[in-house]
Amino acid sequence: MPLLLSWVDKMAEFIKKSQENEAPVVYRGFYENSESLKIVRIEEGIEEIGENAFRDHTNLEEVYLPKSLLRISACAFAGCQNLKRVYMEYGLCEIGDEAFSGCSSLCDALVPDTVKRIGEGAFEGCASLTRIKLSESLYMIGAGAFAYCFNLHEITIPDSCVLVEFNCFYSCFALEEVKLSDNMALIDDCTFEGCRSLRTVDMPIRLKKIGRRAFFGCSSLSSLILPVATASIGLDAFAGCSSLSRIAIPKGLSELEDVEIFNGCDSLGTISFGGDEKLFDNLTRGNGITIQKSDLSCFTPKIIFMDLKDEI
Fold this sequence. Notes:
The protein is mainly β. The protein is built from two helices and 25 strands.
């Protein structure tokens, strides 16, 4: 049975006063970690859950948020280890930094299509999270937002999203399939580092840069086709992708931060390059590509020069 909060009447009065003053109506928190506080329904009229409002309420299991809510502030539910379900309503615009970090029992989440921003570490350490549906209006996802979500199996970043910051899916060990927004120009540093089950990545059409260690240790990834617009690949971007057997690189690629980006790619037999041998020599500064395997032995993969005149 939901806990009937004793402050309902006072909240109603507070909401009325706040609305009269045209100030955001902020719920600041329930300060005692009561054993009976297992289900909470936030009253209509509340527009923001304040910072640390329910932080470390370890007995909390379900939360029902109102349609009036616009923002969940930083660490609002951080450390709620037994929180299993959060019911968010259409109208919510922002999920703040570390809002649900450490909610290790949270199973799934449906992010309303009105949410524009998911903050840094918002769902970090939600180890039981198996699926999440992101907002179709999402503009950005902060650094480490889903790091250490060990049981997350797949993710689709909507095309509304233009920025996914570094470490976003760091060590999501069960992540197998990823569909990235076609409007992302950057796969940031360490975005998928340690995603050892990752098999399929649908790359953004407008991708220009792959950051350092972006796919480091993605040991189940077997093949990749980099988009035509890709111009730069950072240090160790694909290092440790031990199952990667083939990769296609566009002729427009102008920067390899280091020619050792494929170290630990023990199975990489073929690299298809969209340009000719001269362009490849310029790209690698005449050094070619030599791969150091996990046993420290070295080999040179076969380079296929496509010499494409026009890439579309």
